[in-house]
């Protein structure tokens, strides 16, 4: 959603709300993730075409890559939010 705001030159949350749905989410768990340590997520937009945004994300525990994912988000019309 933040990317869609950016495409319109707006601050996140300004003006009318922008909504997106998850069209696809693929997560690969690569290593066990310790629960007593912080994790760091690094996300990058790899494709943006109109209403569709593809994001790749990695999750690190310390220097270890523990998971990676790809998500596709689709911006939906305002009528979805209004229930019409």
Task: Give a written overview of the molecule.
The protein is mainly β and 84 residues long. Helix content is 13%, strand content 52%. It has two helices and four strands; from the N terminus they run H-E-E-E-E-H. A four-stranded antiparallel sheet has the order 1-4-3-2. A hairpin with a 2-residue loop joins strand 2 and strand 3. The longest helix has 6 residues. The radius of gyration is 16 Å and the shape is elongated. The model has no long low-confidence stretch (mean pLDDT 92).
Multimeric state: single chain
End-to-end gap: 21 Å
Q: Helix proportion of residues, in percent?
A: 10-25%
* Topology, number of strands: 4
| Biggest sheet layout | 4 strands, antiparallel
Q: Can you lay out the helices and strands and say which pair or pack?
A:
Layout: H1 2-7, E1 19-29, E2 40-49, E3 52-61, E4 64-76, H2 78-82
Antiparallel strand pairs: 1-4, 2-3, 3-4
In short:
The protein is mainly beta and about 80 residues long. It has helices spanning about 1-5, 80, and strands at about 20-30, 40-50, 50-60, 65-75. About 15% of the residues lie in helices and about 50% in strands.
């Amino acid at each position: 959603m933040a990317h869609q705001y950016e495409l319109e030159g707006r601050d996140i949350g300004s003006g009318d709300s922008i909504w997106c749905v998850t069209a696809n989410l693929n997560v690969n768990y690569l290593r066990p993730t310790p629960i007593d340590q912080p994790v760091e997520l690094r996300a990058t937009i790899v494709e943006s075409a109109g209403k569709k945004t593809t994001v790749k994300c990695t999750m690190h525990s310390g220097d270890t890559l523990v998971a990676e994912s790809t998500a596709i988000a689709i911006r939906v019309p305002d009528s979805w939010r209004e229930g019409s």
